[in-house]
Amino acid sequence: MSAPKWIELDGVVNMRDVGGLPTTDGSRVASGRLLRSDNLQDLSDGDVAHLVDGLGVTDIVDLRSNVEVHLEGAGPLRARDLVPHHHHSLLTDDEHDDPAAAALVLPWAKESGRPEPPKRDDDHWASHYLGYLADRPDSVSAALEVVATSSGATVVHCAAGKDRTGTVVAMALSVAGVSDEDVVKDYVATGERVERIVARLMTRPAYEETLRDQPMSQHVPRPETMQRLLTVLAERHGGAAGWLREQGWSEDQVETLCRRLREPR
């Protein structure tokens, strides 16, 4: 796998294009189709112009909870109504509207009083990721449908761009034919910037209290976590494509997502 295609902007620290990843049959993921990112609240005017006019972004998939969106505000892209926003929360406990209660719906809030997710795996984070698929299959499926049908580049983001974004992007890459090994490598690339990600989120109202006393080690992505998610998908559902079929996707829809993400032959 080549080096991550970081997109350097003023207002984010974890945005990259997954284009260029190889597929198992000798093709590649097309550039300018799927971008993954941390929170978009701090985008500058120049960032906005670069995303829309330079990179051809036509859709935003926001995986944050309702409380995060409420506390953080619309953000410049949404406030200006420049591109369609598709909000698909991956969390279920999502009715709070104050910073103290936000800890209850943040995926990394283990040390802040948030109940552990139902145990679906021995790995803490793998249990969260499998929980997204079990508890919010509607949101995961809808997010991937946006990627499949977008006319330009889709930005998929949450807060850090690691856990919720990592789950949805891994599903998309798997459908496109990227090997598990390279899906895992893309996931752990966020570790290169994890200190900058946490420092940035510490300045945001929805996250500062929750993150204040947490060790950095809690946020570093571990390859075995993503590998476990992919293994469970393969063993229980026949892979990401099989999981989508179980959600009601037709073979044509699965193929549309695959073609959308791959370079034309």
Short description:
This protein is of the alpha/beta class and 265 residues long.
Describe this structure in words.
The protein has helices at 45-54, 66-72, 76-79, 99-102, 124-135, 137-149, 164-176, 180-188, 194-201, 208-211, 223-237, 239-246, 251-261; strands at 5-6, 16-17, 34-37, 57-62, 85-87, 153-157. By secondary structure, it is α/β, with parallel strands linked by helices. It contains 13 helices and 6 strands. Helix 7 packs antiparallel against helix 8 (180-188) and helix 8 runs antiparallel to helix 11. The protein has a 6-stranded mixed β-sheet with strand order 1-2-3-6-4-5. The protein has a single domain (5-257), classed as Protein-Tyrosine Phosphatase, Chain A (Alpha-Beta Complex). It is globular, with a radius of gyration of 17 Å.
CATH architecture: Alpha-Beta Complex
CATH topology: Protein-Tyrosine Phosphatase, Chain A
Strand content: 5-15%
For the biggest sheet, the summary is: 6 strands, mixed
Question: Mean pLDDT, nearest integer?
Answer: 89
Total strand count, please? 6
Q: What CATH first level would be assigned? A: Alpha Beta
- Based on secondary structure, the structural category is alpha/beta
The low-confidence runs, each spanning 5 or more residues with pLDDT under 50, are 110-115
Shape from CA axes?
A: globular
CATH homologous superfamily title = Protein tyrosine phosphatase superfamily
Q: Main sheet: which strands, in order across?
A: 1-2-3-6-4-5
The arrangement of helices and strands along the chain is EEEHEHHEHHHEHHHHHHH
Count of DSSP H/I helices:
13
Helix fraction, binned, reads 40-55%
Q: How many domain units? A: 1
Alpha carbon gyration radius: 17 Å
Q: For the terminal residues, how far apart are their CA atoms? A: 20 Å
